[in-house]
Structures are given as structure tokens and as C-alpha cells.
Specification:
The protein is 23% helix and 35% strand. By secondary structure, the chain is α/β, with parallel strands linked by helices. It has a 5-stranded parallel β-sheet with strand order 11-10-9-8-12, with helices on both faces. A 4-stranded antiparallel β-sheet has the order 1-2-6-5. The radius of gyration is 17 Å and the shape is globular.
């Protein structure tokens, strides 16, 4: 069923919302690391968003309102129907048994790493996850990483966990542990520093 109906909407942090959207094409075929492109209305622009989870005939996305189209999406409620949802798109993450993996997520990138981290754990890896945000109030989905072998929470202001950035925490972590592979998803500046 490609109804594209919003099943639920929940505020996760300031200007950041979680949506469950009904679309069995996406929910049936999505793999960790893939995304959808959606339009809120017929005249709306296309918004690419990572698939954070699938359940039954629905999938979950996490959206931060930062522009006209994402603000428009974040004002929608359960029962509203989106004009278009195309997906799943993109090459899935290469999930296999690597050994020891490091996964880093910053801001709404935390939602993007969640399905990858889960899949890597299910593949038999030892999983270390570093998640970070400016403040504790902006640190989303932190309770959903209980499967990780090690979870490091980071806030810029020190309101939770390690004080600093996820890059600072990553540099400390790699001093004491060797990783076979790493993933990082977050803001552009974080990605530049992580490479």
C-alpha cells in the first residue's frame, strides 16, 4: 500500500521530529543506509531523508526543520498524506562481519546510523557507537542504542556524557582501541573532520 500517510509524528528535540509513514514498497525493500525522497505537496520541493527504521508497512524518518520544505513537513500531523514518496534509494551500507566497528552520528545523523549499527551488531561485530549533539536536549534516540557493546554520548556543552564533539571523542577512542572499519554520519563540518 503506497498511501504515504503519516501514521505518527513525535517531537524528539527542538525543531526535530520523527515521522512514521505508511508505504509498503519502502518498508518491504529498505536496507540500512538507504533513503527516500519525498514531497509534502504537489508544488513542494523534493526532500531526501534517510530511512531510520522499518516496521510492518511503515518506515521511520527523522527531520530537522531547517528550510521551507522541512518546516512544512514538520507542521504535518498523523493522518496527513504526503504527495510523493520515492524509495528506497541509494546503495545500502555494506553490512558484514568486520570484527570491531566504530559508528559515529552527530545531530540528526544519529537517526541515519541507527539501522546501520543494528545491522552490524546482528552480523556479529563488536560495535562502538559515538553519538553527539550541542546539548542533552538535542541528543536524539540515545535510548535506542542499548544493543551497542559501547555507547559514548557527547555534548558540546557537557550537559551529558563527554564534553566536546564526536570528533574529540573519536580521537580519544582510537588511542585505546583499534577498529576494523568506521561509519560517520552528521553535519558537513563533522564529516570533514572525521575523514
Amino acid at each position: 500500500m503506497y498511501s504515504n500517510k503519516i501514521i505518527s509524528r513525535k517531537r524528539l528535540a527542538k525543531s526535530t521530529y520523527e515521522f512514521w509513514i505508511e508505504n509498503d514498497m519502502v518498508s518491504t525493500h529498505a536496507k540500512p543506509g538507504q533513503f527516500v525522497v519525498l514531497r509534502v505537496s504537489e508544488k513542494g520541493e523534493r526532500i531526501p531523508l534517510t530511512i531510520a527504521e522499518v516496521k510492518g508497512t511503515s518506515f521511520r524518518i527523522v527531520v530537522k526543520a531547517i528550510g521551507k520544505s522541512t518546516y512544512d513537513l514538520c507542521t504535518r500531523s498523523a493522518g496527513d498524506v504526503l504527495a510523493d514518496v520515492v524509495g528506497p534509494l541509494g546503495k545500502p551500507s555494506d553490512v558484514k562481519q568486520y570484527g570491531s566497528v566504530l559508528i559515529i552520528g552527530g545531530g540528526v545523523g544519529i537517526a541515519a546510523i541507527l539501522p546501520i549499527a543494528k545491522a552490524l551488531k546482528e552480523a556479529g561485530n563488536d560495535v562502538t557507537v559515538i553519538i553527539g549533539a550541542r546539548t542533552l536536549d538535542e541528543l536524539i534516540l540515545k535510548d535506542e542504542f542499548s544493543f551497542a557493546d559501547k555507547l559514548i554520548m557527547v555534548t558540546d556543552d557537557g550537559s551529558s556524557g563527554y564534553k566536546g564533539t564526536v570528533i574529540d571523542a573519536m580521537k580519544e577512542q582510537v588511542k585505546t582501541q583499534k577498529y576494523d572499519v568506521a561509519w560517520a554520519v552528521g553535519p558537513a563540518i563533522m564529516m570533514k573532520l572525521a575523514s
